[in-house]
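Entry 12.
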Amino acid sequence: MQTMNVTGLVQGVAIPASFSSLKRMDSLPACLQAPSGGFLRLSSAKKVGNVRMARSSGVRNMSPEIAEMEPASKGSQLLVPRQKYCESIYKTVRRETSTVMIGNVAVGSEHPIRVQTMTTTDTKDIAASVDQVMRIADKGCDIVRITVQGRKEADACYEIKNTLVKKGYNIPLVADIHFAPAIALKVAECFDKIRINPGNFADRRAQFEILEYTEDDYQQELEHIEKVFTPLVEKCKKYGRAIRIGTNHGSLSDRIMSYYGDSPRGMVESAFEYARIARKLDFHNFLFSMKASNPVVMVQAYRLLVAEMYVQGWNYPLHLGVTEAGEGEDGRMKSAIGIGALLQDGLGDTIRVSLTEAPEYEIDPCTRLANLGMKASAEQRGVDAFEDNHRRYFDFQRRTGTLPAQKEGDTVDYRGVLHRDGSVLMSVSLEQLKNPEALYRALSTKLIIGMPYKDLATVDTIFMRELPPVEDKGARLAVKRLIDISVGVLTPLSEQLAKPLPNAMVLLTLKEATESLDKVPAGTRYAVTLRGDESYEELDILKSLDATMLLVYLPEDEQRSSRVHASRRLFEYLESNCINFPVIHHLNFPAGTLRDDLVIKSGSEAGALLVDGLGDGLMLEAADQDFEFLRTTSFGMLQGCRMRNTKTEYVSCPSCGRTLFDLQEISAEIREKTSHLPGVSIAIMGCIVNGPGEMADADFGYVGGAPDKIDLYVGKDVVKRGIPMSTATEALIQLIKDNGRWVEPEVVEA
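Predicted 3D structure (C-alpha cells):
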C-alpha cells in the first residue's frame, strides 16, 4: 500500500482512515489538516515545523481498511478519508454492537439502553453503601458503580455484595478503579464489572509535562501497560466479568498528552491502547466511554471513537456520560446536550447522568434520556438522503449567520435583535404587557426608575402572536420601550397588517414569503419560519430574500421528520447555496410537559445541533411553564454548547466514596457567593483523581486534597494547599480577586 509523506502529495493515493499513527495532529500546518476530522498518515519520524512525528510502524496497529475518499476542500487535489461515525446521518438508526454481559444485565444494541449511577457513600461503610444501592435499585437503575480505592474498600465490597444478595438484590456492581491495578484484581472476584481509567491505570498521575519519546521508548511504555493490564483481563475472563475502558478528558496521561494533546484524539488513543491488549488476549466483554465535562469535547471524542471502530471493524458498546455536569437544571442540560446528541445518531448503550446530587436523583433524568433514545431509534424518523458536506463531525466550527446591520432610513437600532454569541427569543403574551416592569424583569433587563436597559442576559427578541390593539396606549408604550433599547419585536404578518406596530419585525411562513412578500410594508424587517424538510424547490425562495433570521419549527406531534435531521438538511442547503441568514431553533412544547422533559428534549434536539455549530439561537415555548424557567433554560443551553456565557460556569463532580467533603453543601455555598461572575469558570472537585485535568476548562479550582483540607488551583496549577475547609470558600474568593476576576454583586432595585 502506498503511503504519503509530508513532502509529496499524490493525487489519488490511498490513505488509511485510522488516525492512530499521528502525534499532535492538531499542530499540523493548516495545509495538511483535513476538514471534518479527516486524517493523514505520515511515514517517517521527521519534524513538521516544531512538531515531532512518530513513525507508525511498530508503534501503532494500523488498519488495512481504506475509507471512502474526498477532496480536503473544494477543488483540492489532496484527498482525505470521509469517516463514518454513525449508521445514518439522515435518521436515527441505532449502531449495531456486540452484547456485553454485566452480571445478569446485557448491554448492547439488541437490548434496551441501560441506566446506571454511582454511590456516594464511603465504601468502607458497608451498611450505608448497601442502603444506598437498594434505594438506587428501587428507583429502576440497572447498574451501580462503587469506588474502590484501596484494600479496605476491596474487602468491604465482598460484604456489600453478599449483603445485597441476601436481601434479594442482584443488581450488577461495578468497581471504579484509579491508580490501583492490584485492587482491581482483588475486587474482580466479586464485582460484575471493573471500570479502569486508561489515563492512570498503569501510567503515573499526570504532571502536565511535555515528554519526548523515541519509538523504542514508546514501545516500552506500551509493553509496560500490557504487563500491568494483562492479569486483570485474564481474571475477568476467568470469572466472566466485564471491563469498561473509561477515558476521562481530565485524566489523560502525560505520555498521551505529549503525543496527541489534551484532545478527543488523545482520549480515543488512550482507550485503544487497552482495547488492543484485551483483543490480543481474546477478551471481548468490554465497552468504552469517553467522558468530559465539556459536552462539545465529549461528543467529538465519542464520534472519533466510533469512526475508528468502524475502520477497525469493531463493534463494542458505548457507555455515555458528561462527567462533572453539576447540579439542577444546568447539570441536566449539559447531560442532555452531550448524551442526547449522540443518542440522536443512534450511539449509546448505557448511560449515566452525573449530577452533584444524591445518586437516586440521577435515575429519573437518565431514564428520560434513555427512553428518548430508544424512541428515536424505534421510530427512525428522519429525512431523505442528502449531501452532508459542510457539517464538522469531529471538531467544532460554528456556522455564524450574518447579523442584522443598520440600513438607511432605520429609525431604531436593529443590531441588538440578535446576539453574536447566540440569541434567545421568548414568546410574550398580551397579559404580560399589563405589568410592564414585571415583564422587563422577566426579560432580564436592568431597571432604572422603571425604565428598561439591556443587560448581559437580556432576551434579544420577543415574539408576540398577538399585538396589543392600537388604542391600548400603555401596552404599546411598554413594547416601544423595548424596541428603543434594541430588543426585537417579532409578530405574524397578519397581526402587523391588522394592528401595525412601528418598527416591529414580521414573521412570514415560507408560503407567505413566496406568495405574499409584497404585502410586507416597505422597510419592514422580516423573518421566515419553516420546517427544514421542504423540497429544494420550495427552499429556493430563500435565495431571493433579505430575511433578518430563519426560525426552524417542527410541531411536537410531527410523525414524519425529526428536528435534528431536518435541520441538518436545511443547514446543508444554506451552506451549499451561500445563504447566511441566522437560524433560530424554535421548539413549542404542549401543555402538561414536565420541566425535566422540556430540558432533556430541548437539550437533545436543539442542543444536538448547537453542539455541531449549527444555529444562532433558540426560542422555547411552553404555555404552562414559568417564563423565568424558559429564559434561564435557554441561556443555559447556549452556555452548555459553549456559545454565550451569561453566568458563572461550574465544573462540579457528582461525588463518590473518594470525596473528601460534602459536595452538595459546598457547591451550594460556592454558588451562592460566586454566581454573579459571568465568564468565570470554577471547578469543585471532591478529590484529586480527575481534578487538575478536568479543570482544563476552568479558571479556578476547589479540590479536596485531604480530609477537611482544600487545595486551590488556577487552571491546572495548584497555588495553595491544605487550606482548612472552614476558610476555603473565602480563600477561593480572595484568589479570584487576586487574579482580577472578581466583581461585586449588583444591588437589585426593589
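Annotation: The longest helix spans residues 215-239. The radius of gyration is 27 Å.
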